[in-house]
Design goal:
Pfam family, one: Pkinase
Keywords: ATP-binding, Kinase, Nucleotide-binding, Serine/threonine-protein kinase, Transferase
Catalytic activity: L-threonyl-[protein] + ATP = O-phospho-L-threonyl-[protein] + ADP + H(+); L-seryl-[protein] + ATP = O-phospho-L-seryl-[protein] + ADP + H(+)
Low-confidence stretches: none
EC number: 2.7.11.1
Order of helices and strands: EHEEEHEEHEEEEEHEH
Mean pLDDT: 88
Strand order of the largest sheet: 1-5-6-4-3-2
CATH architecture of the largest domain: Orthogonal Bundle
CATH class of the largest domain: Mainly Alpha
Radius of gyration: 19 Å
Number of strands: 12
Largest sheet: 6 strands, mixed
Family: Belongs to the protein kinase superfamily.
Number of helices: 5
CATH superfamily of the largest domain: Transferase(Phosphotransferase) domain 1
Shape: globular
Number of domains: 2
Length: 232
C-alpha cells in the first residue's frame, strides 16, 4: 500500500494522483511556488502531499535526477518519498490561431503529508521554548548529516523547506536543486546559481562551487534565525 512505511517508493499512475486530489482542484492546494504546486491528497484515512512540477522549470533529465536522489533517502528527519509520476498526454493547444495536438508533460512527486507546514511559519513564535528549539535544530542537523553521508547536497536548505510534524520534529524537503555526488566526489562547479538569497554560501553564490559546506552555511543561518526568532 502506498502509505505503508515498509513500501518502497514506486511509479504511480497519473489517474491515481488525479483521483486522490479531486483532479488537482483548487480547494486541495496547500502550497505554491515558482516551480511547483502542492496538493493534499487522501487515500482512505491517510493524507499525502502531491507536488505537481512546472514544465518550465524541469525537463526529463532533471526530474530523473531528483527522483534518483529521493530514492536514496530514508530518514526520520527527511520527508518520506512515496512515489513519482512521469506522464505524457495529448492535448489540443492554441498555436498561431489554430488548434494543434501537443504533448503535455506531467511530472509529479508524492510525499507523506506533514500537517503543521513549514518552519518559516514558526520562526518568530514567541511561545516556542528552548526544548522545542533544540529539538528542531538537532533534527535538522541529523537529517542533513544523513544526506551528506549519502553524498547528497541539498543546495536549497531554508525554513520554507523544513516541515514540522505534530510533535514539532523537523523533516527536510524539496530536493529540486539538490546534487547527488558519486561516492568519491567531493565537489562540483556550476554556472547556474539557483536558491534563496540569504541562505546561499558565498562560494556557491559567487563561484558556483558545490560542496557539503554550502549546506552547512545555510544550516548556520537557519540556526541563528531559530535562536533569535528573527528572519533574515
Amino acid at each position: 500500500m502506498l502509505v505503508d512505511e515498509t513500501t518502497e517508493p514506486m511509479a504511480l499512475p497519473l489517474s491515481l494522483l488525479e483521483y486522490i486530489t479531486n483532479d488537482f482542484s483548487g480547494d486541495r492546494e496547500i502550497g505554491r511556488g515558482g516551480f511547483a504546486v502542492v496538493y493534499k491528497g487522501t487515500i482512505g484515512d491517510w493524507a499525502v502531499a502531491v507536488k505537481r512540477l512546472s514544465n518550465a522549470f524541469m525537463d526529463d533529465k532533471e526530474f530523473h535526477r531528483e527522483v534518483q536522489c529521493l530514492m536514496r533517502v530514508k530518514h526520520k528527519n527527511v520527508v518520506r518519498f512515496l512515489g513519482y509520476c512521469a506522464d505524457r498526454q495529448g492535448s489540443m493547444e492554441a498555436y498561431n490561431g489554430k488548434l494543434v495536438m501537443a504533448d503535455v508533460h506531467q511530472r509529479l512527486l508524492c510525499f507523506e503529508y506533514i500537517p503543521k507546514g513549514s518552519l518559516d511559519k514558526y520562526i518568530t513564535d514567541a511561545y516556542r521554548g528552548w526544548r522545542t528549539c533544540y529539538k528542531i535544530i538537532k533534527g535538522i542537523c541529523e537529517g542533513l548529516q544523513f544526506l551528506h553521508e549519502n553524498h547528497i547536497i541539498h543546495l536549497d536548505l531554508k525554513p520554507a523547506n523544513i516541515l514540522l510534524d505534530d510533535s514539532m520534529a523537523p523533516k527536510i524537503t524539496d530536493f529540486g536543486l539538490s546534487r547527488c555526488f558519486d561516492e568519491n566526489q567531493s565537489r562540483d562547479i556550476t554556472k547556474t546559481i539557483l536558491g534563496t538569497m540569504g541562505y546561499l554560501a558565498p562560494e556557491f553564490r559567487e563561484g558556483g562551487v558545490i560542496t557539503p559546506s554550502a549546506d552547512l552555511y545555510s544550516l548556520g543561518v537557519i540556526i541563528i534565525e531559530i535562536l533569535t526568532r528573527q528572519k533574515g
